[in-house]
Amino acid sequence: MLYILQVMSIIEKHTHSIKDIARLSGVSTATLSRYFNGQSIRKNNEEKVKRVLEETGYRPSIAARFMKGSSSGVIGLIVPEMNHPFFAMIAEGIMQEARKNGQLVLCGTSEGSVEVERQVINRFSQSILDGLIYIPVAKAENIPALESFRNLPLVITARRNIIPGVPHIYHDGEKGGYLSTKYLIQLGRLRIGFIASFWDAPCSHEELLDFATKPASYTFSSIERFRGYIKALNEFDIPFDPDLVVVTGYEHKSGVDAASSLIGRFSSCNGIIVMTQAVANGCAAQFKRQGYKIPEDLSMIIFDANESKADYTFTSIELHLLKMGEESVKELNMLMQGEPAEDICLDVELCVRDTTAILRL
Amino acid sequence: MLYILQVMSIIEKHTHSIKDIARLSGVSTATLSRYFNGQSIRKNNEEKVKRVLEETGYRPSIAARFMKGSSSGVIGLIVPEMNHPFFAMIAEGIMQEARKNGQLVLCGTSEGSVEVERQVINRFSQSILDGLIYIPVAKAENIPALESFRNLPLVITARRNIIPGVPHIYHDGEKGGYLSTKYLIQLGRLRIGFIASFWDAPCSHEELLDFATKPASYTFSSIERFRGYIKALNEFDIPFDPDLVVVTGYEHKSGVDAASSLIGRFSSCNGIIVMTQAVANGCAAQFKRQGYKIPEDLSMIIFDANESKADYTFTSIELHLLKMGEESVKELNMLMQGEPAEDICLDVELCVRDTTAILRL
DNA sequence: TTGTATGCGTTATCAT
DNA sequence: ATGATAACGCATACAA
Edge-to-edge strands of the sheet including B245-248? Predict the structure, then answer.
């Protein structure tokens, strides 16, 4: 009961202004403002002020504070979808780090669509932000020098090479693709499927193959990982077969479709690399339905096994999503303090679990 | 490229004020303000204004706007943990609905702790909110009439009976508990374990048993569901065995511990009801390790199988989490418009899948 | 329809 | 250390 009462009184909508407090406690607003910002005031004044604050439950308005040019303590976050363990985990990391700094996070989801993303960004621009963490859906080519963008501190997360001069926080996707492919090869599996996932405006099959060889002006994580896949194949002199590559989305259904597509295309596939768990689940379900045994007939490696919550059955490339969120906030805060910030590439590791096994003939 | 440029120019930090626009276009600020708010102005003025707006990329500051008393278009959300499919899904629903209304969501996580929750609420109070959606962790007894709380529109989500006079959006937990228990009984399984999960300050084993019988002044979802469990047992004249009940947390590890605990306590358990997937995974893993076969030896039913992303293997009580989020925002907006809002109880359904089977002796 | 003047809650500047 | 006052960007009552 006491607890609830406290909560309630704390969160009341604005009633008293700094002027009211000044009047009630007999000091000037200037003195109060200084007091709130950590400066010391005369002893007997402090006592009086404290008592009045207690009684009124006064809270400063950050709207007014922000208007005066100081910071709002609010950072923005644009994310494709909150209902996805990958982004939820990053968001959790962001919020934890933000809380440590007394910051809040204003969220918007782009719902995996470029159009919605535009709307949300537009909406954000009318809001009170010290900075923005942006997990893009958009496909953006030929990015020019952006002089128009130097005012709002910005960090790009989970993608690399999107906007020059802006810090990007991402995983070493190429290494992930390389490690997973190499491991499957070492298990004796030379027919390795690669299921690339995209949000909006997916790469075409051809584009993907194209991007894997020549340096692109931007990248998606699927493309990075695909590069590693190609690299490993080359290293072991395994001919690349385009029929082993599927481009799809990020849903459970995408996995089902991808599996069907693979099964329909050719006769033998004994290894497979999938971008995320939802797709992998759909994929596995469909393969099982067609009589494949996992891991014997078909070994699977996925990215981001969503550590703490899952059944721990997928062999996976482990990502560090909480850390990714934390680093994003740290970078953003550096930027906001005028310090230079650079890209951060987080390492990945192969974690062998239940969905991979040596190929027996 | 064009896309990125647009984004950038839109989100630039404030440069022009309404006064600048007034000066540049030769009209007064009042005229501009009216124009922005939909009133018509003289034709030739409108053209001039439009051109200036185009050139400057002017955006009104909602900080100033909100200071004047109008709404900020921002709703608050306090959630125990974003990195949990249950809450992530609710949050997604909230954000989708918010976006439809041009609103943004200010998020804070309580990290499953009452203390952190207090901090976050405290931080929220310094912010600009039109209303608040609150998913509580706190255990709150004997809630009094809260006169101090009539200013900030508030909705409680995923819990019921927390604060009188405030609308609650929740699932029919008792029905869920009842349906799952009844189904297991009908499969011939009369030894049904119930694994209750709590965030912070968990109920003691005794408290839980207590709350199940007498009407409590507040409730947790685990308690609601437990009531349904008891109800079904009574209906089939099955004696209640306290040893079949475990109180634990919401993590994977909680499930492992709960399973160990159950196994250690007694000899026979052929059915089990679990609150959430992470716990169920841990639980299933531990039971399997001990030689139990699922669903033959042990049938499992869980709540919230996290529909779109999962492997669809658990028999479950399906919740409507996206809808829960949407309804929360709708209720909150009604409240903000001064309309009365009432509790919403969302229905649940039993979804039979792979983790339940008839008991064969 | 338009412009002038004032207030919103805070911080910063300047004298005291 | 303190108090009076001018900003900040916007909305609006009121006069024109």
Answer: B245-248, B192-197, B271-274, B299-303, B315-318, B349-351
Instruction: Give the CATH superfamily of B173-319.
Output: Response regulator (3.40.50.2300)
| Residue with nearest Cα to nucleotide C8 C1' | B68
Contact state of A128 with B128 under an 8 Å Cβ cutoff: yes
Long-range contacts of A45-50, Cβ-Cβ distance < 8 Å, separation of 24 or more: A49/A21, A49/A25
Token digits for B105? 């969501």
In this chain, the answer to whether the domains covering B74-171+321-346 and B173-319 adopt an identical fold is yes
Contact B170, B346 (CB under 8 A): yes
CB contact under 8 A, A310 and B252: yes
- Rg (C-alpha) for chain A, rounded Å, is 26
Q: Which two tokens stand for residue A145?
A: 């020098």
Q: pLDDT band for position B206 (50/70/90)?
A: confident
pLDDT at B308: 46
User: In a 10 Å sphere around its CB, with 0-12 CB exposed, 13-18 middle and 19+ buried, how is residue B265 labelled?
Assistant: middle
Given a contact cutoff of 8 angstroms between Cβ atoms, the answer to whether B157 and B170 are in contact is yes
Torsion of the alpha carbons at B298, A295, A304 and A186, rounded to the nearest 10: 150
Lookup: nucleotide whose C1' is closest to A34 CA: C11
Give the sheet arrangement for strand A271-274, strand by strand: A245-248, A192-197, A271-274, A299-303, A315-318, A349-351
Please report, in angstroms and rounded to a whole number, the separation of the first and last CA atoms in chain A. Answer: 68
Closest-CA distance, B147 to chain A, in angstroms, reads: 9
Determine the distance in angstroms separating the CA of A191 from the nearest CA of chain B, rounded to an integer: 25
Judge if pTM exceeds 0.70: yes
Tell me which residue of A164, A283, A273 sits closest to A225, measured CA to CA: A273
What is the SS3 assignment for B26?
coil
**Which is the CATH superfamily of the domain at A74-171+321-346?**
Response regulator (3.40.50.2300)
Range in A54-63, A187-196, B76-85 with the lowest mean pLDDT: A54-63
B89 burial via Cβ count (<10 Å: 0-12, 13-18, 19+): buried
Q: Which residues are CB-contacts of A96 (< 8 A; sequence separation ≥ 6)?
A: A322, A325, A326, B109, B111
DSSP E strand boundaries for A85-164: 104-109, 131-134, 154-157
Residues A24, B90 contacting (CB under 8 angstroms): no
Does B284 sit within 8 Å of A311, measured CB to CB? yes
Segments making up each domain of chain B, as ranges = 17-57, 74-171+321-346, 173-319
